[in-house]
Specification:
heterotrimer, A mainly alpha, B alpha/beta, C alpha+beta, A: Formate dehydrogenase/DMSO reductase fold, 69% helix, disordered C terminus, B: N-terminal domain of TfIIb, Dimethylsulfoxide Reductase, domain 2, Barwin-like endoglucanases, 31 helices
Amino acid sequence: MNIATLTTRSGLPLLDFNSRPDPTSAFMMLAGAIAGGIGLAAVFINLFLDGHAAFNTSSDMAWGAPIAYYLFFLLTSSGLTIIASLDTVFGLRTFYPIAKRCVWLAIITLVAGFTILALELGHPFRMLWAMPTALQIYSPMWWMGALYSIDLVLLCVKFYLLHTENWNSRLTHHLSIVSFVVCILAPGTLGLVFGMMAMRPAWYSPVMPMYFILTGFMSAVAFVVFFTSLLRRENSAAAVVREHRRADEQLLHLYDMVLPRLFFVTLLAVIAMRVGQIITGLWSNYEGMEAHWKALESPLFHIEIWAGFILPAALMSTNALRANPKMQLLASVLFMVGIFSARLELLIVGQQVPLFKGYWADYVEYTPSFTEWMLVPAGFGIFLFLYGAGNWLLRLSESRVPERLPEPAH
Amino acid sequence: MSEPRQMNRRDFLKSSAVAGVAVTGGGALVTSMGTGAAEAETRAMPPLETKIVKSVCHQCPARCGIDVYVTDGKVHAIYGTLDHPISNGKLCPKGHLGAYILYDPDRFKGPMMRTNSKKGRDEDPKFKPISWDEALAAIASRLNALREKGEQHRFAIVHGRGWGASDAGLLGDFGKLYGTPNGALGHSSICSDGSKKAKAALDGNYNYNAYDYRNTNYLLNFGAAFLEAYRPYNNNMQVWGHIRTKSPKTKVTVVDVRVTTTGAAADHLLLVKPGTDGALALAIAHVILAEGLWDRKFVGDFVDGVNHFKAGETLEPGTFKEKWTLGLIEWWNTELKNRTPAWAAEITSVTERDIVAVAREFGVTRPAMAIFERGPTTHTNGLYNGMAIHALNALVGSMYAVGGLMNQMGVPYGKLPVKADEFMDDLARAAAERKMPRLDRVKTKEVPLASNNIQGIAQSIVEEKPYQLDTLMFYLTNPIFSTPNAKQWEEALKKVFVIETSPFPSETSVFADIVVPDHTYLERWQDTPTYPFQGWPMTGLRVPAVKPLHDTKAFGDTLIEIGKRIKGPMGEHYKKLGNVENVLRHLAKGFEANPGDNGVNSFDTWVEKGVWYKKPYLYRQIAGEFYEWDGTDYRRPMSNQEVKSKLFPTESGRFELKSSYLGHYGEFISERLGIPPTRVGFPQWLPPKYTGSGDLHFITPKTAMHAEGRSANLPHAVALYQPVSGGRNEMFLEIHPETARQRGIRNGDRVRISNELGAITARAHVYPATRPDTVVLPFGFGHWAHGRWASSRKTGNGCEIIPNVSEPVSGLASYYTVKVKVEKA
Amino acid sequence: MARWGMVIDLEKCTGCQACTTACQMENNRLPGENWQDVLFYNEGEYPSGKLTWLPRPCMHCENPSCVAVCPTKATYKTEDGAVLINWERCIGCKYCMIACPYGVRFYAEEKQKTQPDIRKVYPGDSGKMWNPPYRMPEHKRNLKWGVGVQPKGVVSKCNFCYHRISQAPKGTPDLDPNDPKLRDFTPACVVTCAPTARYFGDLDNPKSKVRQLIAEKRGVRLQDQTGNRPQVYYLAGEAATIPETRSVRRKQS
């Protein structure tokens, strides 16, 4: 069976090898392959030579940069799934044009995240049997693992359904509802992984799931803004029209109005939430919370707050700026850098004040090692390669105006 | 050597039981899912027989009996021996790491000869492995050549803390037979000769004391790191657990110059200015007398029964009738009457309030004892500091009392199979008649009263005075690292042929011409008569737990083998002596007539139990009367003459508060210390002479992890330096925040510690509890050639900037009088 | 079934760290991988600076948060009260290290603080992280209990010397190391503790010495607010204090 000969219902090839990759996709695949190849090679070599001593994590800072990268990708993935559900679940037609792209982005961010996690774990393959057989329902991480696994499966099925033009089927709709629920629960439990840890006061918070869902959604918005603005490098409606093979006001409205506004409003919510965290942290006398003061010394904190939050919010603060694709591109990149720093900062802040280590243990200092940094090109390389490939082969801009919407369930 | 008899213990643990135990927490699922390679591996592995060899630790002088667990020829655990009076089944932190010392990857693997004729700190000796026959022949031919020329004195053996008759105990005869006065140049002058001399001056016993800690109710401790480095450390901690929870709880006051765990665990920690402990002790004595708190049964009383001691007032000698002391009133008149707490507060920086409080507590609590060690005595005024402290034991009547101090009894060893005197040849006799001075100049006009002067040897060699040395052999000492002005040895060792016997690389071995490595302690036979402990005699036996890992030889056997190769009757002597095991077998013959309390009455039973001991201690002072053990109790009264010969061997047969011993050396002491000859006998305040150009006292104490020099290369110990200056992985210079701030030093900064001798560096640990006038850098961690872990620690060696000044009477090196300058590096 | 627990008398403890080294050698730990650690704390200034210390084994909690978070049930609670790690199930996710309020867990496969790296001197084989020549005899090693030289990529911690205590005769109220018959079943740290600051016994047996000490000397548990309910109790006595959990020097010059 030749995969290239498989087709969808309407006869479109399942994998569209016929067209040559557009320059952007080709560049992404090439850059992704190079970055991913170098990153993975470096990580594998160092892990082979030194084991996990190649990381700068320690028994005092058990979770470091790899977990931060993992968080970055997984939460983004969940956010993307939410965006993809806005149409398929809630019928917000505005979002149809980006639904398929979001599902694909969600899948590949998960893959990148899981790959990084596998390189961080002591025994990733053991996890495959040990977690399912343990049924440890008390462990948020167990739920997180279970939900993200389900999430990945659902996303793949959903993508297949969209790709095979089952946009309007009941199956798609129901599947999308389940997928939506899972993509809320998954980052939620990931939030619980941190938020339930009373012994780590800087993390301990019932709103940690909400914070994860919200920031995941925000970074998803940034991803979408970034990747759609890439489509419009020429800053012309024509490009969009060409890409989507349709021309309507709705499409331009989505790109010029809806997404940037969504970006701005969500960012304000993120800032509000983060300010609450920071103030609580700085004010509290509780042991372990002094890490918030220590965080003020960290460049990560300032990249997060100023470059990642405040500046993009300013850039998206007026209609004129919002409609400018260059500003959109800049704001989304800034936020992505900011939230990337924030993930690492969050990891550090919870562990920076050592627990029962005595006088000789100062604040735990942590900067990622070379190997840990190389997980960044590894993760983004995988992501970019798959995105470029998807863009080339999977018609990510495809969407069908539904002849009839599914009846809303009463 | 025959295989030691060992206790065999069948390990009952069946492998099937290991594999079959169900994991309970996770339920059956966990158990079934857990089946993996390791379980199969466990099943396939039959339980091996574990033997427990009884031996003796060698990481400090305490001589703890150890159970060495050996399975399949590998040592995998060391615990204290349960029926050993010192260890009682316990160990200190170092004891467990002994297995690591055995398997130290940096050990010398066999005898080696230097091939690089150039010597220096950075010169690779380019050692070439040689056979034992070659090594021994090379040494013997060198020694024979010297001997034939009648220059035996040009051969010297410098030794550290020897163990017993089977190692350092062999050196005396070796030197005699060979014909050198330098056969056993000891290290005690960099150890604790100060306290021995102080005690000898007052009570006539030139020895450390044995102590009845368990029954004391007050422990006044001057500068003895009771819970860190004071022997027997392990037993001290056992004592601590007891005395701090018994009823009544023993009160403890620690006088030190820095915060230690001992001081922190005590009731009071008085941080005195370095070198002023004596002033504090004198003030305490003053209060005890002025407030009438002395022990009248031991000391005596005023004839009229009224206390006439008043500050500043002189008394008539006849008004007081002394019982076991001598010279109390004279002491008061010449020294004590003005030694008020207010006076001492000025000198020591301890408040008058604290001095009075401690003096009263100490004075009213019985039994009470004052102990001291290197802290007060490694100063230029160390002898008098020590005497002032030891005098307190007389005032509170703790000498030979329950809960007081005793002296250590010897072990009734059997005789060696051969007598050295019968093997002296003409060369040896001629050498004896030449009466050449010792290389360390002890018993010359320069160092007349000390036992040893190891810290003077480098100078002797460099200046070729009293003569030019030819060959120098080291055993268990590394003075090029550990003596004051350590760097002078680097010049000295270039000038002589050096024989090193350490199993491990050391700074000495960098300068060695030939290395004949010893076994580590888990591989060798050795007797270990106890250091002063609880008075009654005891001797442990070091039994090889495993066959030597490398081509090494116990030092005792190396010495005997060299002896066999010396021409003439000396060689015959050593051939008859045979080897160390034979020596031990003859020593053990003494137990036949004196079976130990644990049934040890032969060599074999000694091996089996690991220790011979015989309780009780024979003497006791009860309410001012002395009694000897009569077989069931202390009931046989001792005459004054017996007390004099056995307990207070001073001229007066009493505890002399005016030392007649020192009185004989009035001129010498007067010349060296500036005390008028008439006053030299009294415990008194003598201001310390601080050495070194600097403004901060520089204290280099021993820590709990200091294992006779070996802990520096134990990675596990390195990770646990801890409490105050230690941290984890690095030894720091402890400095007060204000002192640091004035010098622009921040916590963790690398600092330069210097005086006229040079400079070393270390990282600063800003520690608010340190005295502002004192910095602390523990001894033993600035190695530059001591194995891979020891040599990569980036902390300087304090001994390089300690001027070589000694207390003239005891000969003890004054380590702690040095001052330094500290600045940001 | 016994429910093993430990009592540590801080008034007797001398801070010597023999418990630490005994444990390290018994259990073949790496330098600094102190399953049983002694923590030092400083407060105050000359001449009244206060130095205190706290020995800290695994607390073997009644409600262990580490067990709850372990996604593979590699960390589990035994019927006789120990919290163990099954090294055949551990995936090295280190969540238990996050969740332990007492900081007792180690992931030894990391940069060694004590250099040179001893694992390079004694490299491991057949899945072992390292291979010290003084390692525990192979037949005593038990991966399901987390006993012996550990494999790579797993978390480790104090196991109450489970290979010793699990062999104790049933119904023993206290494992007294001074009893030659019980000595080999007593945890290494308890065996060696020179001032006898440690006691090990059955917390469910009202007649055990540990229960008696907890009652008479008012034993306390660390961080009781966590609800983990440690099975290691401290006797603070008059000479000792329970130090703060986290000691980060806020004032530094």
